[in-house]
Design brief:
heterodimer; A: mainly alpha; B: about 375 residues; alpha/beta; two-stranded parallel ribbon; 17 helices; 9 strands; globular
């Protein structure tokens, strides 16, 4: 989804190249979950 | 194994058989009561109980104790805390404590192009500030309000999830969730709170190209919205259908159906079946419904059960049709006879579970004794 207000992990990582592989393994699922939760909340608000 | 765990497994199996196209041991039952009903039935104050979601468990428990169902029969969907924080115009608690949905316009006519170009950005930038007065402010205030509302929302949903889990265990309900995801038909999301019923009725005549493009643009958003993190073939994404019965056939065919069909197919491709609340009377569109992916769950409000069984019964899973209005006005015997009549038509060959034609939303929507009698009758007699 192309949006200023939603970011995939890949997009986040491209903006933050300093993230190591080890950090990525720990961070990625959690970071993506928050984007998904906020997306769901915003959609719920107009549904 | 505890008795409740064994009961839960038995009920889960009923729904697994239903979904797998096998004839279950008996007709599965899904009782459906809104949280407002449960609060009133427990004798509690609607306003207070909806603000105190920590305390909803014993309230829901009373409905679970008194009304037969094979799946958890109570659910809550809209709660006041986050709507109040946001200054909601689209969901407002009335003096009775019931949350009402006034007619709103979240998307201005001149914003169609922005929506078509990027629906999610348009929702964040233009729609939310129109629907929620506390978001119609500077960006710092807006982010503070949004943070509070999101915290309230996740707290409420967390409480509900915990309560649902406890009640499923306590009453041995089946582990099947037809509300595992939620989205709308693309035309409906544009209609309901973006343009509003009145505006969309004008738009389909004056700017049909914009409506068509907006529905198309909303489709990927609806597929994403309706896909939960862990799709399961035994769960479903709930899609309440609204506007189709109010459209002319040619408008339905052009503006409603293509994007809706793509949404259901997209969900299927993502591993989710759709659970459609086929609101109002869709009989003139019944052949369209037959085109949807096999195993789509359809709960009908009105229409001809015989025609639905004949045209959809071999492909889809059918429920509904039982008139809640009869539970309010009929005698106990009339209510039981109606259940018999529907089971005789819809149950043969499987692909059917018993459900009312709509959720029972308030205590005065139905006669409680009739409701209990019907659920008990089906539970005791609808064996294969």
């Amino acid at each position: 989804m192309n949006s200023k207000y939603y970011q995939t992990w890949e997009e986040y990582k491209a903006e933050n190249p300093e993230i190591t592989e080890k950090q990525e393994q720990a961070m990625a699922p959690k970071m993506q979950t928050y984007d998904e939760m906020l997306f769901s909340f915003i959609m719920f608000l107009c549904a | 194994m505890t008795d409740m765990l064994a009961l839960s497994q038995e009920r889960t199996q009923l729904f697994h058989d239903l979904i797998d196209g096998k004839i279950p041991k008996k007709v599965p039952i899904s009782g459906s009561f809104a949280h407002e009903f449960a609060i009133q039935y427990a004798g509690k104050d609607l306003t207070e109980a909806q603000w105190d979601t920590d305390g909803l468990e014993p309230i829901f428990e009373k409905t679970c104790q008194d009304f037969y169902s094979d799946l958890l029969p109570v659910s809550a969907f809209r709660l006041p805390s986050f709507y109040k924080i946001l200054g909601s115009r689209n969901f407002v608690m009335g003096s009775s404590g019931f949350i009402q949905h006034p007619e709103v316009e979240g998307l201005a006519l001149e914003d169609y192009d922005a929506f078509i170009a990027s629906p999610f950005d348009c929702i964040v930038e233009r729609v939310l500030p129109k629907l929620y007065s506390k978001l119609d402010t500077d960006s710092t205030q807006k982010s503070m309000v949004m943070a509070k509302a999101f915290k309230a929302y996740t707290d409420e949903m967390g409480n509900l999830g915990r309560i649902y889990g406890n009640l499923i265990q306590k009453f041995g309900y089946g582990f099947v969730n037809f509300y595992s995801g939620f989205c709308e038909a693309p035309f409906d999301i544009i209609s309901d709170q973006l343009r509003g019923f009145k505006n969309i009725s004008i738009d389909v005549r004056r700017v049909p190209d914009k409506v068509e493009a907006a529905a198309e643009a909303a489709t990927p958003l609806m597929i994403k919205m309706g896909t939960p993190p862990n799709p399961s073939p035994y769960n479903a994404t709930f899609i309440p259908l609204h506007m189709a019965p109010y459209l002319r056939g040619k408008d339905f065919e052009r503006l409603y159906w293509p994007s809706f069909k793509k949404t259901v197919e997209g969900l299927k491709a993502n591993g989710m079946r759709s659970f459609l609340f086929v609101e109002n009377d869709w009989m003139r569109y019944i052949d369209y419904l037959a085109e949807l992916p096999e195993g789509t769950i359809m709960l009908f409000e009105y229409g001809d059960p015989k025609l639905v069984k004949e045209k959809l019964g071999k492909k889809h899973i059918i429920s509904g049709f039982y008139p809640v209005s009869l539970l309010k006005t009929g005698t106990k015997q009339q209510c039981i006879d109606k259940a018999k009549e529907l089971i005789d038509v819809l149950a043969p060959g499987g692909g059917y579970y018993f459900g009312f034609d709509k959720v029972i939303i308030t205590l005065d929507s139905a006669n409680v004794e009739n409701t209990k009698a019907v659920l008990d009758y089906v539970a005791e007699n609808a064996n294969y």
